[in-house]
Fold:
Amino acid sequence: MIDAASKAFFHFLAGNEGLKGLASRYGMASPTSFARRFIAGETVEEAIEAARRLEARGLSQTLDYLGESVATLEEADGATSAYGQILDRIVDSGVGRNVSLKLTQLGLDVSQEAAHTNLRRILESAKAHGFFVRIDMENSPYTDATLEIFEALWADGFTNLGVVLQSALFRTAQDLPRVVGNGARVRLVKGAYKEATEVAYQRKADVDAAYAMQMQYLLREGTFPALATHDVEIIDAVKAYVAGEGIAKDRFEFQMLYGVRRDLQAALAKDGYGVRVYIPFGRQWFPYFMRRLGERPANVAFVLRSLAKEQ
Structure:
């Protein structure tokens, strides 16, 4: 695992406009370009084709139109309208109706009310067409607002909505029962953001211990929990726990990232576990891509090898 300093370095690079420009030119330039290992493409058509390939292998999927931290209400409105068009394309395609999104893409940095309104617009269309929508959790300054928007829309009857919680954050021990008590579906992740020592565990062992406890709680008390991890030790712990508690394999699912541990995805599906793959796409892929590099040394090595081949 990459240490905290290296992880912070990749988060710094994610905000570098010069690197973002270079990546935009070369990262998706060909079917073998380095970013395509982790990003399905820049268009919804490319994402749908990736979804078809995964479903043909017995895997489920969720599509995520990448974008975050928009600076104006006009940009937020544009992203909201784009999601409406994406939902229509998914319906026409026949692939599974499951999407993920970020509230800063819908204007949360500009106005919490605007983000709420824009998400409602998406949910109205999604509910009419049988979609499940997951709100991705961003870094800790957004947690309160994200949960407030989620709970308000859930109370308004949008029960096709789920949320993500991060085991690295101290507060998740309290947030988890709060969300589960609503009957909502939780996606549990370790957390991809660099967080301060005042709000989050810094040692992998502590994050893993928190994840294990929260995983067990979700499997006992949650509604179809999504356990998002590529960590083999945690996956083995899940298997052991559900076997010991008599929890059926169809009461939860594993979730993994597009292009990461495809061998493990296939092995879990073969063993009868539900596996959903998170498929990111869109032109604003660079920040997401840099966070993936910051999570695992193997990801960095893969990109370096790919770059060497392209030279």
